[in-house]
Amino acid sequence: MTELEIERNALWSGLFCALFGLTTGLIIFAGEHPALLGGISVGSVASVTGGVSAGLSSAYAFRSLLRQREPWLRHIPAWRQYVAAAGLVLVHAASTVMMILVATHLFQQAFVGLQLDVLAGALAVAGITGLSAYLALVATARTSAENLSVVLGIYMAAGVLISMLLAEDQGWWQGMFSRLGTAQSGMGSFWTFNTTMIISGLVLIAFTEFLTRDLVVLSQTYRCRPSLERYAVFRKLRPRPRIVRWCLVAVSVGIIGVGCVPMNLSLEVHSAFVQLASAAMIILLLGTMLLLPGYPAVFHLMSLSAVGALWVAFLLWDSWSYYNLTGFELTAVAILFTWISVFIRTTAAMIRDRQEPRSTHGAGARRANGNTHHSTEKPVS
Description:
The longest helix is centred in the middle third of the chain and has 34 residues, at 187-220. 74% of the residues lie in helices and 0% in strands. The chain is an all-alpha fold. Mean pLDDT is 85; it is low at 359-381.
């Protein structure tokens, strides 16, 4: 799968979806003078056509392009492929709808009172729909752990921010973060927050597949540091991609559970999902030296520092009453996402170094690297 093939497919997808948007706009706007947003408007119609087109383009890209570009995807169990595909399709569709509504809202504020005729409105819908399909296909076809983490971070931040802005209960922050997902905060906040959590969990599962594959590649070329080979305990240490994967899956399940079971529906079950995600992350942070040998020492130091920072943040809330529960939750999320970002970038850097070995590892590393390329189609366990 070449880069040119991806671009060609993306352009065809954009063209067909632009025609779909144009036809839909001409039908819906017949006899109307649509505004940019509100009621039967460019924003409302384009958010539907754009979201559908982005979702379909993403599904096609996963099935026909990404699985060809990443052959190992075809070797994992079918249900894991479906879950990964669902996460990618939903995040691209939801992000598209979100961006269209925000963009048309801003333009409506800039051009107060603007109303378009049928043709102009339909052309605007066509352009937005075609662009949405093009971007979704390109993004899905070029999915990797590194860029998917960026998509996940942006989507979660945008979804939570919008749910904050839509909250009817302006004092939600005086309780806990999960109040945004309750009906008391308003239906807009309720649906936005919980949908964001569920889709984010599915995206994290998809991200886990790609990250695990990178860890498998690293584990196949792992060599104990020469300075540590004389210690038996270090010679026995090996990277454990499977344990890392299950920890991240547990975090994903916890996030999905938070969205599926709001705190006002069952506080005990909601709290159990939060605790599941928290426990899995703590295991990852404390166990990096055992689970990820070969990573730089400063990375392990940062992991332990993150645990210490979480403990201090907890004390600031629980023992010293420096801030409320919402403040602790925001601090904890910031710490964890910072660590995840560093983890992803460190892994990506190590993968690139394996693909382009430096003189530090000598000929032995280059020979091990050659074996890595021959094993890239093994299934991820």
